[in-house]
C-alpha cells in the first residue's frame, strides 16, 4: 500500500471563501500537505491578508479576490486561474452565505443572495473550470471538486434560515448529479457537510462553543484539523474512490443523534 495516500505535493487547488472560517481551515490543510493554493473571497483586503498569513508556513498561497455570486463572477475567477495555471487539480466550492428571518417576513433578496452563492455558484464555477479540471484529471489520479454543504442540508435546524436549508440540501443532491457527469472526465465530485465550527458565519459556535457542545454527541465543536482532515482525505489519493458522497463532519449531530420517541 502506498505511504503517500494523503499528500498533495505538486497539486494546485482553488478554495473559494478561503480567507476565513472553514475555507481558511481547508486552505491551511492543503498547504501543509504540499499543495499550491489559490484562495478567493469577495473582499480583496481580507483575501490578500489571509494569503500572506497562510504563506508564512512555507507554502505557496495566492490571493485571487472575486465575487462568485454571479455567473460572470465565476467566469472571471476561472479566467484568472487559467491565466496562471494550465490545469487545476482541486476545486473547493466553499463560498457561502446565510440569511435568517421569520417565515412571514422572509425577503426575496435574502432568498436570492443565499441561493445564488450557495447553490448556483458551485455549479457555474465548476462549469467554468471544467476544462482546467479535465486537463488535470487522469484515470489513476482524478481531479477533485469538493462542495461545502452543511448538516442543515441533512437535518433541520430550528432557526428560520429557509433559503440556507434549501440551498445546502440542493447542493448535496447537485454534488451527486455532478459526480455522475464528471466522473467520465476523470473528475471526482464529493462534498463535506460541516456542523458547528467557530467562524464568522457560525457566530454561535464561535462565541458560545461550550454551550453548543452540550448538544453534540462528541461533546465539542469542530476544530481546524477536523475540517482540514476531511478535505485532505477527499482531495488526496485516499479519497479517489469516494464519488458523489457527502461526509458529515459534525461530531455526530446529523447521523448519531437519537430522536424523541412517541
Q: What number of domains?
A: 1
Q: Gyration radius, to the nearest Å?
A: 18 Å
Strand-residue proportion:
5-15%
Number of strands: 7
Distance between the termini: 49 Å
State the secondary-structure class. alpha/beta
Q: By CATH's scheme, which homologous superfamily applies?
A: NAD(P)-binding Rossmann-like Domain
| Poorly predicted parts | none
For the record, the CATH architecture stands as: 3-Layer(aba) Sandwich
Instruction: Name the shape in a single word.
Output: globular
Integer average pLDDT: 94
User: With helices defined by DSSP (H or I, 4 residues minimum), what is the helix count?
Assistant: 9
Estimate the helix proportion, in percent.
Answer: 40-55%
Order of secondary-structure elements = EHEHEHEHHEHEHHHE
Which CATH top level class fits? Alpha Beta
Provide an overview of this structure:
It contains 9 helices and 7 strands; from the N terminus they run βαβαβαβααβαβαααβ. The chain is of the alpha/beta class and 262 residues long. The chain has one domain (12-248): NAD(P)-binding Rossmann-like Domain (Rossmann fold). Helix 1 links the parallel strand 1 and strand 2 (36-40). Helix 1 crosses helix 9 (224-235). The longest helix has 21 residues, at 108-128.
